[in-house]
Amino acid sequence: MAKTFCVSITNCRKDTDKVTVGFVVANAALGSELDTLVFLSTDGVWAAVKGEAEKINEGTPFAPLKELVDKFLAGGGKLLVCSPCLKKREISEDMLIEGARPAGGATLVEWLSEGSPCVCY
Fold first, then answer.
1. Where are the domains of the chain?
2. 6 pLDDT higher than 70
3. Tell me: the pLDDT tens digits for 31-82?
């Protein structure tokens, strides 16, 4: 069994349910003691912008997105944000939450090439 896991999230503002469930699954992977990466791309990059996660709360049974993201980062999860997607949306690195790191697609490919399973939201 792989010791890593990847959650690719391409939604945030356009589909708040998907970004929420993506982080629920990412936290579940951490809870299963898997080295876990969340890769945010396209609309999903907004989840890493300061002040954006606070706007999303799907309600019961889900925790607010800010809590889910904070729990993920506090648990040692890795949060990468697509560099070209940030540039397209005119989001600079200083606008990102602490713990989020810009990265290109090659970083994701490297992670996956080691055999990591990946789910997408």
1. 4-120
2. yes
3. 999 999 999 999 999 999 999 999 999 999 999 999 999 999 999 999 999 9
Whole-number pLDDT of residue 113: 95
C-beta of residue 72 within 8 angstroms of C-beta of residue 19: no
| CATH H-level superfamily of 4-120 | DsrEFH-like (3.40.1260.10)
Cβ distance 62 to 20 under 8 Å? yes
List Cα–Cα distances, 101 to 79, 86, 93, 115, in angstroms.
Answer: 6, 11, 8, 22
**Total count of residues recorded for the chain:** 121
Q: Over the chain, what is the mean pLDDT? A: 97
